[in-house]
Amino acid sequence: MAISLILVLAAIAIPQAQGRTTSTSLPPSHLTSTTTASAGYLLAGADGSVYGFGTQTYGSTYSDGITGLSGSHPLNAPIVGMAATSNGGGYWMVGKDGGVFNFGNATNYGSTYTYGITGLSGSHPLNAPIVGMAATPNGKGYWLVSADGGVFNFGNARFYGSTYTYGITGLSGSHPLNAPIVGIVPTANGQGYWLIAADGGVFDFGNAGFYGSTYTYGITGLSGSHPLNAPIVGMAATSNGGGYWMVAADGGVFDFGNAGFYGSTYSDGLTGLSGSHPLNKPVVGMTVTPGGHGYWLVAADGGVFNFGSAPFLNSLGSQKIPAPIVAMVMVPQIHGYDVSNWNCQDLPNSPQGLMFVETNGYPFSFDYAPPNSPSCGVPSGGISQGLMAALQIAGNATQPFVYLGDNPSPSNANPAVTDFVPSGCANNSTDVGLAAVGTSLPGWNSTTCQYDEPTATGTFANTPVTTQGCQLYVDAGHSCAAPGANFNFGWQQAIFAYDTATLNANAANLPSIVRNTWWLDIESGGSWTGNGAHNYDAILGSIAALESLGVANVGFYSTNYQWSQITAGAPNGAALPSGSPLWVPDPGASPASVCSGTAGYSYAPFGGGTIRYVQYGTTSQFGGAVDEDASC
Question: What is the reported pTM?
């Protein structure tokens, strides 16, 4: 495809702990990032929500029609753990009852129910609730661990023992655990694992080495003469398995073996769970960078604390979340492809970690005359064989993108998509026909500057939403009374692309992908006006439209040069919504220069956003040219 831009937002939650504080790090509120290391993190909420930072999400329990911890189809039990596949293309979540949910390229290999164990109740209940999970190195299996030290293995995950193997009879009996187990961590080759208890006790199995516990430091668990200030809540191992860290609920960190100490929440001047500067919420977990020279902690409110080489990629901050964060996992750099009307005949032949799919370009949509390409097929009834093929390859990992600055008026519109198809737009005119679109917006409340969210039938419900795109439009000096034609044009174009994607995704039995991260492709090839302020208004209209439809993450594909040219003269420097992810093309053969911020002015971050993905070249391995992408 031509140079394109994608932005991704991801969020992750990690538990906190207490411990030694021999190094310092700036408080998260002081940290900003325009480039990132080649890793991101995911956060999981107790209700099955997933938040991604520096990486992408592939769905949540809500995608499966499970309405969190309440509603018409609630979870049987809260989520307690999470694990990611080795290539970052998917993940699992596990519930307290042992139920397993898989997303992206993560395969479901079973759950405690597979063993005939009926969750937390029933005829054959679990002895104790599940508290965590871990995946094998190649992602073809996983372990679940329960609070009594029981270990359950699935797929190619082998069983190497449990606390019962040591003669410890769970949480009761003649030789009970001193404190419940809170997590499991595998060794680098998956031929062993550690279990960690709330009192800092460590249990090693298989080829996992024992390098000490909090007792080694003279800390007598949760009681005694020198107790922990707060219980241990998480653990992580070094890349070669020669050491590990523990983290406590107060943000204290304890290092063992070859694990380096890079700081704790105390290093940030936060005095645990009490004191003059306490944590807002307890830490619930931790994860480490690929090289093991840094780590992140995450709190129950989604606050993220970074240490050593771990970059701060954002957090949930003050954002209100429906349920507390319970787990955090690191996701390594992801590679994949973007497919569009420029290369629809050369699609990858198997699912990839990254798949960006265009929703509105010839011949991926029905907004043009039927194409003659036999590989892409002839659109029929609004279904494009090219788009369908891309969706079926990418699956639930699809991140749709919209080619902006293009004519949104279909020449052979399908009746199935009639919600907001605009009319009267001049095709490829100097002015893009923006003025001809008019000033009416379906669902617009000119008094409150809000949109009534559209329902599946195209009508509007009384659930007004205020979007960041709308707010930026107002901040730029426009009135709520009537959005201008330029804003309306962008709005209509995004809605049309969303309708196209919805129609094809439903046909491909992938309805949930329309809730994934969406990208707006903003490049010079589009039919932009000569007025940068008008172009900016159209971009804000597209953002607002997607957000009004419930798209949580909107990213942007462009270069600093093209963004500056297209939006030249826009009010307030053509700002993007806070924390916007960017997708930037690299002029060379490697994404490293863009990710590191050394590629020069044209490829620097723009609009106040953060570079998350780089389009770095093409490959012919699929019989033609297809664009390659990587996460920063």
Answer: 0.65
